[in-house]
Design goal:
This protein is α/β, with parallel strands linked by helices. It contains 10 helices and 10 strands. The protein has a single domain, classed as Rossmann fold (3-Layer(aba) Sandwich), CATH 3.40.50.300. Helix content is about 40%, strand content about 25%. Bound molecules: adenosine-5'-diphosphate (ADP) and magnesium ion. Magnesium ion binds next to helix 1.
């Protein structure tokens, strides 16, 4: 479904992604692991067209998307739930959600997706009129995921959804992400929290200094000595 071939990304003079190649099949649930500054956010921004690659090729469903503008890539079926949520704190829950559907013309379909989001996160429904900025970190993360779902993506990129959240809250978010994958959405999940990511995903890639250094099944990575030492603190 998604294919990166020798992708290199620059921010100004600084090369942040080095020659990355990877493939994700439809329905897959894949982790992108790496410490702070490894390049996880840069890689996601490259995929969704915010930070186009300097070299290499990105394909989605067989079509080259390497140089397609970000606002058009959403319409092709990839949604990014960005690091740090990036909500509109002064807007209501429902208005934040509807922003995720801005490019959709099918009003009825949008309403159906909204009900799906509310089904997945009943707390958002209970408080649909409340200002997003008054929510707890966990609720804001649910809202950010909900907003990404509103675009009806076939593939969802989640950038560090566990960041700054208490372990119990992280569990709830992890369950919701697992449900989304079970509903048929292909998920690419970036995490510094390798423990939670490897518990729920099928496969994973490890990124260091903008380079992929390891890949494998999540159940193998979780026992890999290098991963244990660098990311699991054991
Ligand atoms: N706007 C920017 N300008 C310059 N360098 C940046 C910018 N954003 C990120 N970087 C650099 O790119 C590298 C990768 O960062 P990032 O993609 O944010 O990693 P991660 O998401 O894994 O923490 C880091 O070395 C970081 O300092
Ligand atoms: Mg990041």
């Amino acid at each position: 479904m998604l294919k990166l071939i020798n992708v290199t990304t620059m921010i100004g003079e600084h090369q942040v992604i080095h020659d990355v190649s990877l493939q994700i099949a439809r329905g897959d649930f894949v982790a992108l692991l790496g410490g702070n500054g490894a390049g996880k956010t840069s890689l996601f921004r490259t995929i969704v067209g915010v930070l186009p690659p300097a070299k290499g090729r990105i394909e989605f469903k067989g079509e080259e998307i390497s140089h397609i503008a970000a606002h058009k890539i959403v319409g092709k079926g990839i949604a990014l739930c960005p690091e740090g949520r990036q909500l509109f704190p002064q807007l209501s829950v429902q208005k934040n959600l509807m922003l995720g559907a801005y490019h959709r013309k099918d009003k009825k379909g949008v309403e159906e997706t909204l009900e799906q989001v509310y089904g997945l996160f009943p707390r958002l429904k209970e408080r649909y009129k409340q200002m997003a900025g008054t929510f707890s970190g966990g609720e804001q993360q649910m809202l950010a995921i909900g907003r990404a779902i509103m675009s009806k993506p076939e593939m969802l990129l989640l950038d560090e959804p566990s960041m700054g959240l208490a372990p119990l809250v992280v569990e709830g978010i992890a369950d919701a992400i697992t449900q989304l994958n079970q509903m048929g959405i292909t998920v690419f999940l970036s995490e510094q929290n390798a423990q939670i990511a490897l518990m729920i995903t099928h496969r994973g890639y490890v990124l260091e200094n903008g380079r992929l250094v390891l890949e494998g099944l999540s159940r193998d990575l979780i026992t890999n000595e290098k991963v244990k030492k660098a990311y699991l603190g054991t």
